[in-house]
Specification:
Layout (H helix, E strand, L loop, with lengths): L1 H39 L6 H22 L15 H35 L11 H32 L5
């Protein structure tokens, strides 16, 4: 059962990466079109605003993809000298810190999104409803939070059980 949970987490991370990649490609196409059209006329109205909103969404979806592929930065100046069990314990502690932080972001993000919806917040030029963007951010952070939770349980279990010997 646990392997299925981990595989589901990896699948969700892959989907997050695909969504982020699609958003980035669309951003690039919009930017190229805007720059090209500026040579002939005034460019795409509201392009900077749209690309900025898309960038924020892409960034938050990329976080879970990066975590799922173990693509984050590791600084192991001292870490590599610890025993495998102590490394797992410190990894669990680091993930727990991330869980607390991103749990607070999810919690605050829910209120943030609801407030944007109730106040009918829109972007400046294109009048895009901002609750949509904030909701997408919330999804990206929540997916990352779930991945951290799965990682924390895994690190904790392996710490208590003891690391596997090669």
């Amino acid at each position: 059962m646990w392997k299925r949970v981990q595989k589901s987490s990896e699948y969700i991370a892959r989907i997050s990466g695909i969504i982020s990649a699609i958003i980035i490609v669309v951003m690039m196409l919009l930017t190229v079109a805007d720059v090209t059209l500026r040579k002939f006329s005034s460019g795409l109205p509201g392009n900077v605003e749209l690309v900025s909103l898309m960038l924020v969404v892409a960034a938050f979806f990329t976080i879970s993809h990066c975590w799922g592929n173990d693509g984050h930065i590791n600084v192991d100046l001292l870490f590599g000298h610890f025993s495998p069990r102590l490394q797992l314990a410190f990894s669990a502690l680091g993930v727990l810190t991330g869980l607390i932080f991103f749990g607070a972001v999810v919690w605050g993000g829910i209120e943030f999104t609801i407030k944007a919806y109730k106040n009918s917040e829109v972007s400046t030029n294109l009048l895009i409803p901002l609750y949509i963007v904030k909701f997408l951010l919330l999804i990206g952070v929540f997916v990352f939070f779930i991945q951290l939770l799965i990682s924390f349980i895994d690190f904790l279990y392996r710490t208590l059980k003891g690391p596997e010997q090669p």
